[in-house]
Design brief:
By secondary structure, the protein is an alpha/beta fold. It has two domains: 3-90, no CATH class; 129-284, Nucleotidyltransferase, domain 5. The chain contains eleven helices and five strands, in the order ααααααβββαβαβααα. The chain has a five-stranded mixed sheet with strand order 3-2-1-4-5, with helices on both faces.
């Protein structure tokens, strides 16, 4: 929720509902609303507005050090970096910190397997080649993670899970969902070398289900390009307008669920003769 818009919503409906009722409806604390209201009503100093405009022009992708350099280069304004940082924190316009992928999970063995897929992303039939990956959803009050498994036959998302933790159970639950009701004894399941996939628990579960695992070469994103491209599309198509908005955890999850349905059942693909993944599988059956 954009602060300015939410303040307008409260003002528009305060004659019919109390502030408390409106805040509860949007799952936003009243204290947050009043802080936003003070910020909206206050006069913004020219220097602060300049920083706000600079961050907006750069889509909030740079930190306070870079903003400080731009102020000096473009406007000959010399300020201490901490001053710029405080202004960005005040208006909540600091760039998002990229969360590092978990490299090790306590108590888990590390198993590396060969790259069997070798960037051959074509499958002749369903349940022949699956790809999986984890991505970040940094759009709500806390970081969420999305684990996805895709069938390369028709690029259908056959399983996904959302969690606030990167623990092994996260990917185990995704794999169990993918295996449920499917013939998976000849599947090659390709992933990167993330800690969850190299864990003994994940490799053992795959083996129990007759699945052969495959892994990308270390540091080579092209080896798992299809699933990484899908996660990129989900973010750009579903969340691009809310990059700086504050969404509730419930809304973030709902947007992912809606996108998954759209992607599987509605979105046409050229390589599938303009069918959606589910439609293509149904027609080809």
């Amino acid at each position: 929720m954009v602060p300015e818009i939410f303040v307008e919503v409260v003002e528009a409906f305060k004659d019919r509902f109390t502030t408390k009722e409106i805040c509860e409806c949007f799952e936003i604390p009243r204290s947050t609303y009043y802080r936003w209201k003070r910020r909206v009503n206050q006069q913004i100093p020219d220097f602060h507005q300049l920083i706000i405009n600079t961050c907006k022009q750069l889509s909030h992708r740079v930190g306070h050090r870079k903003v400080r350099e731009i102020l000096w280069k473009d406007y000959q304004i010399k300020k201490n970096r901490k001053t710029v940082q405080k202004v960005m924190q005040k208006y909540e316009i600091q760039c998002r910190v990229k969360v590092k992928r978990q490299k090790y999970i306590a108590g888990e063995s590390k198993i590396i397997v060969p790259n069997l897929l070798k960037q051959d992303f074509k499958a002749e039939k369903p349940n022949q080649k699956w790809v999986t990956d984890i991505t970040y959803l940094p759009y709500g009050p806390k970081m969420l993670y999305l684990s996805t498994i895709m069938d390369l036959y028709n690029n259908e998302v056959i399983a996904y899970k959302i969690s606030d933790s990167q623990q092994v159970d996260f990917v185990l639950d995704t794999l169990r969902e993918a295996c449920n009701g499917r013939e998976n004894h000849e599947v090659i399941l390709h992933s990167d070398q993330g800690a969850q996939y190299t864990s003994y628990a994940f490799q053992a579960l795959a083996k129990e289900n007759g699945i052969t695992t495959s892994m990308s070469r270390k540091g080579n994103c092209f080896d798992n390009a299809v699933i990484e491209s899908f996660h990129s599309s989900l973010k750009s198509e579903e969340f691009v307008a809310q990059l700086r908005a504050t969404l509730t955890t419930t809304i973030v999850i709902e947007k992912v669920i809606n996108y998954m349905y759209y992607y599987n059942y509605i979105r046409p693909f050229s390589k599938l003769n303009c069918h959606s993944p589910v439609e293509y599988r149904t027609v080809a059956a």
